[in-house]
Amino acid sequence: FEAANIYPKSTKIAEDAIAIVCNKENMDSAFSVEDIRNILLGKDTAWGQFSEKNKLGKISVVFDNSGSANARYMQDTLLGGKSFSNNVFAVHGNPAVVDYVSKNKNAIGFLSVGWISDRDDPMSLDFLKKVKVMAISKKKNEPAYQPFQAYIKTKDYAFSRSVYMINRQTRAGLGTGFVAFVAGEKGQLIILKAGLVPAIAPVRMVRIKTN
Asked: Taking the CA of residue 137 as centre, how many other CA atoms within 13 Å lie in the half-sphere pointing to its CB?
């Protein structure tokens, strides 16, 4: 790019997260970052290692694609570039992850939170009927959080990441206009509606107390 005198511009548009889902019949649905690291490295291979009452046997781990951003994030950021263990494999897409986990009681799956966060999307609602979303704590014995928008915004949820649009146009054009739209008010509202965290627009946090 420098040789061609092209200087791409990066614009942050959202905060995304990786959701971890398990089978509805799995009694364990809250783990620490260290637990997830040990599962992906193959140090913890059976559900009984976390709870003696859990009789689901060997842990099976599924990603949406072997080269997806989800798999790369977990391998690069969480594992420091180390290889996944033999119990980790990939299917073809996020819907296939949900389908596999819903049919295999011993499985956990990794997918982008956008697939389960839009409460008005029939597909998202259908996914949530089939699997449980796991809560993650940054350290053992600390509070665990699910990938809700508020917890992604406050960084309480561990597996969050920034989303950028990169424009390499050499002049103002269609690409520049599209980036401006996504980073503007309407574009940020669309991102908010999709269940992600807008980079610019505020997120409303409501706490409800009952007596």
From this structure: 11
User: Could you tell me the two tokens for 44?
Assistant: 């913890």
Give the pLDDT score at 61. 95
Q: Is the pLDDT of residue 34 over 90?
A: yes
Listed as own residue / partner, the contacts of 128-132 with beta carbons closer than 8 Å and 24 or more positions apart are 130/24, 130/98, 130/99, 130/101, 130/102, 131/21, 131/22, 131/23, 131/24, 131/98, 131/101, 131/102, 132/21, 132/22, 132/23, 132/24, 132/26, 132/29
CA distance 76 to 112: 16
DSSP type of residue 20? E
Element (H, E) at 15: strand 9-23
Q: Which residues pair with 167 in a beta bridge?
A: 9
The closest alpha carbon to 59, from 85, 30, 82, 80, belongs to 85
Closest CA to 196 of 119, 127, 113, 135: 113
128: Cβ–Cβ under 8 A, 6 or more apart, which residues? Answer: 116
pLDDT in tens, 76-86: 999 999 999 99
Give the pLDDT confidence of 35-49 residue by residue, as tens digits. Answer: 999 999 999 889 988
